[in-house]
Amino acid sequence: MDLSGKKALLICVETGKGFSCSDSLQELEDLCGTLEIVVYDKLIQRRDRPDPVFFVGSGKLQKIAETVKTGEVELIIVDDELTPVQHRNLEEQLKCLVMDRTQVILEIFARHATTAEGKLQVELARLTYELPRLRGKGLFLSNPGGGVGTRGPGETILELDRRKIKDRIAHLKRELKKLTLNRANVRKARLESGYPIVSIVGYTNAGKSTLLKRLAREEGILVSSKLFSTLNPATRRVKMPGGRVFLFSDTVGFIRKLPHTLIEAFKSTLEEVLFADLLIVLVDASDPLYNDKLKATLNVLEEIKALEKPRMVVFNKIDQIPIERMEMLKLEHPDALFISAKTGQGIPELLRSVEKFVLSTEPCVTVKINVTMLAELEKFRELATITQIGSNESSETLRFRICGPESVVKKLKSYFEGGHETDGAENLA
User: Fold this and answer.
1) What Pfam families does UniProt report for this protein, alphabetically (predicted)?
2) 319 is in an annotated binding site
């Protein structure tokens, strides 16, 4: 759908719960900016709950209709998810294209999906959203593609459209299941590699991709101020201060009212965080609504059952705030870390803290190693923390303390204490 340049009127109902309408509409305006929609005006109505028929009351509806008649507005965007009834009634009453917050987010995801899996996930989310809203000639229907079939005896065009969408949804789920199995195999290989995994999560535009780029010292990672510029997890090797290598990954940005259809469609992607040893919850320190957005992030983690994972809160963009604000944040969040992914400030402290936490959770063993194997031992310093302890046991052996993931520690102990026939060094490196 080409929305570029279209003038939109944004509408919000102020119920006194959650984000204020002024803040929420500002976020919606940012979302519209990502789609190059021009915001003509914003309208707020205060009421206990949205009207079940038209979302807004009759007086506000009349005012909106008068604005549409002037020709200055081509699009109405509601800052909530409309019910199919509300959506239909608004379009029929206003004779104008109506979108809700969910559709805007889905449209952004559709534009930013680049991988085969991402495109399938977005299409599944869109069709799941559109199916109950399909009516007449399919006013809300995007291009579902594939699996069209033919109309059966006595089957209306609407029934045919619904059947086509249901068939397409079933096909998408089958294709995603195949890709999920492939993702599981990749994940299994990553877990078996023995490298600790750290996932960077946070509200959209908190700077996750910028942080990953800084940590990995790479130029090839997309960094954008546009919302939801990252849909597919990117994983990079990062050399830690002690010489070990950890795997860091960023994820799709979270947002308030992240559509449930998207959470379901992207479940296999979001669930990557379940397999992390540690979560970095990144927060934009310059955002006045940082606390509400932190809560929204934790709500999504709870929905994907990742709230119990070990996590550390990290405030980003401290280069954009005065020292007084940072001192206030430190008082409110004494356990948090403070960084600027853009300038590099605080990054060494972050890496040391991550390394210290992960190492504190790892098992250790003491191993006697023949001096002829010392060169071989050096190959594994990326995978484990290796420290010589005590003096020489003899002229032929030395004692080492080896700490690391349980699978790695067991294999190294077996390998260096004579079990060379087990997995071999090449399967550990």
Assistant:
1) GTP-bdg_M (PF16360), GTP-bdg_N (PF13167), MMR_HSR1 (PF01926)
2) yes
